[in-house]
Design a protein that fits this description.
Layout lengths: L4 E3 L15 E2 L4 H4 L29 E3 L19 H5 L15 H7 L3 H11 L1 H5 L12 H13 L4 H18 L4 H16 L6 E2 L6 E7 L5 H14 L4 E6 L6 H12 L2 E4 L5 H15 L3 E6 L7 H17 L6 E7 L5 H12 L4 E5 L9 H8 L7 E5 L7 E3 L2 H9 L1
Parallel strand pairs: 1-2, 1-4, 3-7, 5-8, 5-9, 6-7, 6-8, 9-10, 10-11
Antiparallel strand pairs: 11-12
Helix pairs in contact: 4-15, 6-7, 7-8, 7-14, 8-15, 9-10, 11-12
Length: 414
């Protein structure tokens, strides 16, 4: 099991041990009666769960979404039922599997070696850590050390506000606890950073709705489509059936890129060449509800926060999703490039104003010297934190993992 997922306990299921990191989410009457959301049921497997190697001999087809000749986003004006042409594109739901739930023991066995992940995370943040690690080799905790540490944190893009707050707290701890060695000060700094980052650590409740509708947004080149493919793989290992919507209808090869990930994960993709992304999103959610799919993931085109017309388009997609399934999208995730440093703070603010965000994915942290930007983000959003659900430190599927405040602080400080 993965620590970033929260599951509801089933009556006949043995509770997972604490080491799995899965939180048991109690059923909420309010959730069960939310309009348009079906009660939580056993997830229906849409396709056989992938083996260790992708099933290349039977790639998933791309299902063309229907195009309305007049207005592909006509559902906005009252959202009538899908047209016959749209219905024709939805294949009948496969027969339900006997019990698609993953046994606790099997899921635990499938969990990647966390120590291996920590090694990759430490390696990815080596350039950031290199600015800080050598400072604590001294045995003198004096003003010179604090000045060097301030420079190192600012260089790592932790930002002035966060750096000042962290140093003030470190000085207080050193004085109150009478620390007198560099190693003691480094351990104190690690704890301070972990506590600051902890509000960003939160799992996703993947059983809160069926289907769980996720809208993925971000700027150009942040890694949205790749993150969708990796996340789909992890969700399948949790027993969820997946349907992807290729809402990036403008970028060259975006449709094909998502289709490739769909083929690798044996997942179907709803797509429309050069069409309206709102129509694709609507058809995907409609198909997901008809098939009782576990998760519908909607890709969107990359856009800069300064492009007002494209940010308005993002709002329109969100409205269309709410018409297709009231209350959706249940998760609105922003993908951030870890190499952008503090620029991610402006991106989070702009996208959250356009479509309220529920979580973040930070990619490309491998080799970055700006890993301290997450510290700046935690400080800036301390009154209204947006959780960092996942971080990525490489291209492999296993390189996208749950964010842990303790692990990140350890990798950052050494």
């Amino acid at each position: 099991m993965f620590g970033f997922l929260r599951r509801k306990k089933k009556p006949a299921e043995v509770a997972a041990p604490e080491t799995t990191g899965i939180e048991q989410a109690p059923e909420s009457p309010a959730e069960a009666s939310a309009p348009g959301i079906a009660p939580a049921t056993e997830p229906v497997a849409e396709a056989p769960q992938p083996a260790a190697a992708p099933a290349e001999e039977a790639p998933s087809p791309i299902v063309e979404a229907a195009t309305s000749p007049a207005d592909p986003v006509a559902p906005l004006a009252g959202m009538p039922a899908p047209s016959p042409a749209s219905d024709a594109t939805v294949a009948p739901a496969p027969a339900p599997a006997a019990d698609p739930a993953i046994p606790v023991a099997a899921a635990a066995a499938a969990t990647p070696d966390r120590q291996g992940w920590m090694s990759r995370l430490r390696s990815g943040l080596a350039r950031t850590r290199g600015n800080i690690a050598g400072i604590f080799s001294t045995t003198r905790l004096d003003d010179e050390l604090y000045e060097e540490l301030e420079t190192a944190l600012l260089t790592s893009d932790a930002g002035y506000e966060a750096t000042t707050a962290v140093l003030e707290e470190l000085k207080t701890v050193v004085r109150k606890q009478r620390l007198d060695t560099g190693e003691q000060a480094r351990e104190a700094l690690r704890r301070i950073l972990a506590d600051l980052l902890r509000p960003l650590e939160k799992p996703i409740d993947i059983d809160r709705a069926e289907p769980l509708v996720m809208m993925i947004a971000g700027v150009n080149g942040a890694g949205k489509t790749t993150s969708i493919g990796k996340l789909a793989h992890h969700l399948q290992r949790e027993g969820k059936s997946i349907l992807l919507a290729a809402g990036d209808t403008f970028r060259a090869a975006a449709r094909e890129q998502l289709a490739e990930w769909g083929s690798r994960n044996d997942v179907q993709v709803i797509s429309q060449q050069g069409g309206d992304p709102g129509a694709v999103a609507f058809d995907a959610v409609t198909a997901g509800r008809a098939r009782k799919t576990g998760v519908v993931m909607v890709d969107t085109a990359g856009r800069l926060p300064t492009q007002a017309h494209l940010m308005e388009e993002l709002r329109k997609i969100r409205r269309v999703l709410d018409k297709a399934m009231p209350g959706s999208p249940h998760e609105t995730l922003l993908v951030l490039d870890g190499n952008t440093g503090q620029n991610m703070l402006a991106q989070v603010k702009a996208f959250d104003a356009a479509v309220p965000l529920t979580g973040l994915i930070v990619t490309k942290l491998d080799g970055t010297a700006k890993g301290g930007a997450l510290v700046a983000l935690a400080r800036q959003r301390r009154d209204a934190p947006i959780p960092v659900y996942f971080i990525g430190v490489g291209e492999a599927i296993e390189d996208l993992q749950a964010f842990s405040a303790d692990e990140f602080a350890q990798a950052l400080i050494g």
